[in-house]
């Protein structure tokens, strides 16, 4: 797990030595890490997932805690292209199962690596934003 931060530090140091500008806190990408979440095991049922981009809604879902991935807002140096701007959120991603299983669909994708249609097989994770201030951590309805 230590290789990625060392690589990022080396890339940043190299860019600095070459006189390249490094964006300060733009948060134009998200890096996700595998790890062992110390949260107690639990399940949250009765979850509905409503798309903000026109995909079909999914109901009857159960989210399983602890998180399988947690993500951090990062800047990527190297391959140029647009990304989210000024992202400062952290996310943790949890396994999710829905009954009945949602039908496969496709996700239109356009990013700096190309334009394509991503065929989905099944809903696998629900990524929830972590509160930067901790404001909603005591509110169980936030899940």
**Radius of gyration from the CA trace?**
18 Å
Question: Strand pairing plus helix content: what structural class?
Answer: mainly beta
> Which regions have little confidence, pLDDT < 50, spanning 5+ residues?
1-25
Please indicate the count of domains.
1
Encode the helix/strand succession as letters: HEEEEEEE
Mean pLDDT: 76
- Counting DSSP E segments of at least 2 residues, the number of strands comes to 7
State the helix count: 1
Largest sheet: 5 strands, antiparallel
The span between the termini is 29 Å
Q: How would you name the oligomeric state of the polypeptide chains in this document?
A: single chain
């Amino acid at each position: 797990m230590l290789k990625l931060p060392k690589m990022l530090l080396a890339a940043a140091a190299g860019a600095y030595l070459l006189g390249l500008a490094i964006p300060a806190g733009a948060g134009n990408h998200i890096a996700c890490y595998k790890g062992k979440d110390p949260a107690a095991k639990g399940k949250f049922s009765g979850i509905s997932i409503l798309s903000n981009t026109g995909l079909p809604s999914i109901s009857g879902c159960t989210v399983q805690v602890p998180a399988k991935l947690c993500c951090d807002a990062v800047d990527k140096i190297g391959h140029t292209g647009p990304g989210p701007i000024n992202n400062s959120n952290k996310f943790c991603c949890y396994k999710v199962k829905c009954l009945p299983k949602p039908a496969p669909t496709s996700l239109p994708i356009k990013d700096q690596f190309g334009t394509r249609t991503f065929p989905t097989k099944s809903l696998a994770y629900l990524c929830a934003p972590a509160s930067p201030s901790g404001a909603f951590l005591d509110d169980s309805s936030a899940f």
